[in-house]
Design goal:
Elements lengths: L2 E7 L11 E13 L2 E4 L8 E5 L3 E11 L5 H8 L4 E5 L2 E6 L8 E5 L9 E16 L4 E9 L3 E2 L19 E5 L10 E9 L3 E3 L10 E3 L4 E9 L4 H7 L3 E9 L14 E17 L6 E8 L10 E6 L8
Antiparallel strand pairs: 1-2, 1-8, 2-5, 3-4, 5-10, 6-7, 7-20, 8-9, 9-10, 9-11, 9-13, 12-17, 13-16, 14-15, 16-19, 17-18, 18-19, 18-20
């Protein structure tokens, strides 16, 4: 069992966010600390006389969780970068693309059921973030990342969840294999995963915490299962071709925001999708095809992938 988390964007590394907001998510974390009993040779059979207090950092995870338009942007702002915003009354069109050094996050949480120790993780960074969807299932996301060693909070965090509904997987429109948005009706399920390849970096500076978390090579991978009603996708694989992929999820529960009043949306776009593998499955009631590949850099988008949120939350601010 896990518990929710409060999240805030920091103005600078090392400075906790002034405001943290509740995110309904399957959050958990683990302290990674390298304590060692030092082996010494002292002309006897005993070898352990001293200890070494090791360096430490946090590994944290958000397991598969529902996607809410008012909070998912906190993770996106660190997995990709601060979005560019276009305001429409009380709503924002937030466009997320890859930047080299996204703002860090402050996380606050405690243990589920028995709140033994409330704690804060500063300078949290996203290493991996993925979206999963299935027509007869749910739309979810997951996140993995790092942060500096936890510090205890003086009191338990108060979780205040909004009444906003999450996105639903089947309420999506797809543009794939050269068709217009909403005309492609073959996608059954899939995943889109972002990887930042980050690692803690330690230096000799009288601190057990990492000096920074390195930013490695960026990568976007996809895994799509489609109804095999034509050979279009298989031909793309067979000929080592590329295509584009856009999935637009709309919250159609009556919620409207902005001027003019529009429904919240989440748009996932890979401008250049390269097919590395395709597998035709004839064991199902109807044949289906699983297509796997990676996003290539798209010069028109100036990014491997673009995520666009139409939401009432301003994710360009630091809180």
């Amino acid at each position: 069992m896990s518990i929710g988390v409060k999240v805030g964007r920091q103005t600078a590394v090392g400075t906790a966010a002034a405001t943290v907001n509740t995110v309904a998510a399957d959050f958990s974390s683990k302290l990674v600390k390298a304590n060692v009993a030092v082996e010494e040779v002292r002309s006897g059979q005993d070898i352990h006389f001293a200890k070494r207090d090791g360096v430490s950092y946090e590994e944290w995870t958000v397991g598969d969780s529902a996607v809410y338009h008012d909070t998912v942007g906190y993770w996106l702002s660190n997995a990709m970068g601060t979005p560019t915003n276009t305001a429409a009354g009380s709503a924002f069109t937030s466009v997320f693309k890859f930047t080299d050094a996204p703002n860090a996050l402050t996380l606050e949480t405690t243990q589920p059921r028995r709140a033994t120790e409330a704690y804060q993780i500063r300078d949290a960074v996203v290493d991996k973030m993925g979206f999963s969807f299935e027509a007869d299932g749910t739309l979810t996301y997951n996140v993995n990342g790092f942060g500096i060693t936890r510090t205890a909070l003086g009191s338990e965090p108060t979780f205040t969840n909004s009444a906003i509904n999450p996105f639903v997987a089947w309420k999506g429109q797809v543009a794939f294999n050269g068709v217009a948005l909403g005309s492609y009706a073959k996608l059954k399920k899939g995943t889109i995963n972002i990887t930042r390849n980050r690692k803690p970096q330690f230096t000799v500076n009288n601190s057990v915490n990492p000096t920074t978390f390195t930013t490695g090579s960026r990568m976007v991978e996809f895994d799509l299962t489609c109804d095999f009603a034509s050979v279009g996708e298989f031909d793309k694989y067979r000929n080592a071709e590329t295509d584009s992929l856009t999935i637009l999820f709309t919250l159609t529960d009556g919620t409207t925001i902005g001027t003019p009043a529009l429904s919240p949306t989440l748009r996932l776009k890979i401008g250049t999708a390269f097919f590395e593998d395709a597998d035709i499955d004839t064991s199902s009631d109807l044949p289906e095809i699983t297509v796997k590949g990676k996003a290539l850099y798209n010069s028109s988008d100036a990014s491997l992938a673009v995520v666009t949120l139409y939401t009432a939350t301003n994710f360009t601010t630091a809180s």
